[in-house]
Structures are given as C-alpha cells and as structure tokens.
C-alpha cells in the first residue's frame, strides 16, 4: 500500500477495514482488486486484473509463461528452504516431504535426481516432522523463529523470495499508455524505499 501510495494510487476506503473486494481509488481508471496471494497470478493471467502483486514463491509455484514480471518490489523478503530436524538424513533413499509448494518441490528434487514422496499441506508445515507425517518440509523462512520454536532448522536453500509486480501480457500492449507510467512510478517508489531503508540502516523487509 505505501508503494502504491507513492505511485499516486490510494483506495477511497482502507482495504484493512472495508469488506469490499473491488475498491475505487483516487485515479478514475484504476481500481484495486483484493485477492489471496496465491490467486493473484490467476487473476492477472486471465485478465481479471491487469497488474498484480504477489510473492516470487507463488509465481514459481504457479509456473507458466503467461505473465510479465517487470519489477521486484523488494518487500516481504524471505527464503524458500528445505527444513527438518537438525542433522536429518536428507539423502535417504526415499524421504517424505510436506509442503504447499508441491510443484517447486517436485522440480527441485527431480533436478537433483533425488526420489521423494510429496505430501500436500495448506499451512503449518512446521508441524509435519514433529508428528512423523514427513521427514522434511519446504517452507518460507524469515527470522527462523517458527522453525526454531518447533525444533527444526533450515537444511537447504531453494530460492530468495520477495514480492513482485506482474502484468497481463495483453494489457501490457493494449493499456500501454496507462501501465507504462504506472510501472515507472512504482520503480521510483521502490528506489526511494531502498534509499530511505539504507539511510535508516534497515533492510527493506516488509
Ligand atoms: N515470514 C515471511 N516473511 C516475509 N514474507 C513472507 C513470509 N511469509 C510469507 N511471506 C510472503 O507473503 C505471501 C503470503 O503469505 P502466506 O503464504 O503465509 O499466505 P497465507 O497466510 O497462506 O495467506 P492466505 O491465508 O490469505 O492465503 C507469501 O507468498 C510470501 O511471498
Ligand atoms: O522465519 P519466521 O520469521 O518465523 O517466518 C516463517 C513463517 O512465516 C510464514 O508463515 P505466515 O506467518 O505467513 O503464516 P501462515 O503461512 O501460516 O499463514 C511461513 O510459512 C513460516 O511459517
């Protein structure tokens, strides 16, 4: 929201309070669509929204070639890792891995020629190794506090994650005159955020 504000886009009612999912803004041609992070690529690919914001983890899991990804917003930074009990045997012949990122996980292990059994979960992955549901998990880590609180540790790094701006391919062409200056303003807002984070000694995490 602060980055959008920087780019001159403010919703007329605060989304944290409103129950509306389609919000008017101060700019006549721009409305805000409120969806779950995991649904953002679908809305943008199929034209339910021209532009979207979502995590790189979501985009990697979604896959496909349907979206432009012109800007790293540099917020919501974290890492996608394999985690398990410290010292867990990650090269055992057949390990069970619990995650909501089944596509990423399948790809990652297949590229390394490692055989795994995937268990799809929708959240609280850290619980799975504690109750013997899985040997390993694939999940996001920021401070590491959630892993630590559950007696787990990061074992392998898969990817650095942050929020990205995505754009519908057709809209990029047909609404170029609206989208191009918007992208430029968002880019300037991200640069300004990084400058002020550097000056105040913070990292730009959300
Ligand atoms: N600890 C974290 N630090 C930084 N960014 C994070 C962290 N956890 C999640 N994110 C980012 O926020 C996005 C949404 O988070 P998460 O996957 O936890 O959604 P959720 O809680 O399942 O949301 P919903 O229930 O609305 O679907 C992630 O895709 C990721 O990019
Ligand atoms: O390393 P930490 O700083 O502890 O952050 C990691 C936690 O953050 C994310 O969960 P989130 O808080 O988004 O909750 P949810 O996925 O269960 O909704 C992720 O799934 C981890 O559980």
UniProtKB/TrEMBL annotation:
The keyword Amino-acid biosynthesis applies. Residues 36-187 form the ATP phosphoribosyltransferase catalytic domain. Its EC number is 2.4.2.17. Keywords: Amino-acid biosynthesis, ATP-binding, Cytoplasm, Glycosyltransferase, Histidine biosynthesis, Nucleotide-binding, Transferase. Gene3D superfamilies: Periplasmic binding protein-like II. GO terms for biological process: L-histidine biosynthetic process. It is found in: Cytoplasm. InterPro entries: ATP_PRibTrfase_cat (IPR013820), ATP_PRibTrfase_CS (IPR018198), ATP_PRibTrfase_HisG (IPR001348), ATP_PRibTrfase_HisG_short (IPR024893). SUPFAM superfamilies: Periplasmic binding protein-like II. It catalyses: 1-(5-phospho-beta-D-ribosyl)-ATP + diphosphate = 5-phospho-alpha-D-ribose 1-diphosphate + ATP. It holds the Pfam family HisG. One of its GO terms (molecular function) is ATP phosphoribosyltransferase activity. GO terms for cellular component: cytoplasm. Pathway: Amino-acid biosynthesis; L-histidine biosynthesis; L-histidine from 5-phospho-alpha-D-ribose 1-diphosphate: step 1/9. Heteromultimer composed of HisG and HisZ subunits. Belongs to the ATP phosphoribosyltransferase family. Short subfamily. Lacks the C-terminal regulatory region which is replaced by HisZ. Catalyzes the condensation of ATP and 5-phosphoribose 1-diphosphate to form N'-(5'-phosphoribosyl)-ATP (PR-ATP). Has a crucial role in the pathway because the rate of histidine biosynthesis seems to be controlled primarily by regulation of HisG enzymatic activity. This is ATP phosphoribosyltransferase. The gene is hisG.
């Amino acid at each position: 929201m602060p980055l959008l504000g920087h780019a001159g886009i403010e919703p007329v009612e605060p989304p944290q309070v409103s129950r509306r999912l389609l919000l008017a803004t101060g700019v006549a041609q721009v409305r805000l669509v409120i969806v779950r992070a995991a649904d953002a690529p679908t809305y943008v690919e199929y034209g339910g929204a021209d532009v979207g914001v979502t995590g790189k983890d979501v985009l990697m899991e979604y896959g496909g070639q349907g979206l432009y990804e012109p800007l790293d917003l540099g917020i919501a930074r974290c890492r996608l890792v394999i985690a398990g009990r410290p010292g867990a045997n990650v090269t055992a012949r057949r390990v069970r891995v619990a995650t909501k990122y089944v596509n990423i996980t399948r790809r990652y292990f297949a590229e390394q020629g490692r055989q795994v059994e995937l268990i799809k979960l929708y959240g609280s992955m850290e619980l799975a190794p504690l109750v013997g549901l899985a040997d390993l998990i694939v999940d996001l880590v920021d401070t590491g506090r959630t892993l630590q609180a559950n007696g787990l540790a990061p074992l392998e790094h898969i990817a650095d994650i942050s929020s990205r701006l995505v754009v519908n391919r057709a809209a990029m062409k047909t609404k170029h005159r609206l989208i191009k200056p918007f992208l430029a303003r968002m880019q300037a807002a991200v640069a300004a955020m990084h400058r002020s984070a550097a000056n105040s000694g913070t990292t730009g995490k959300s």
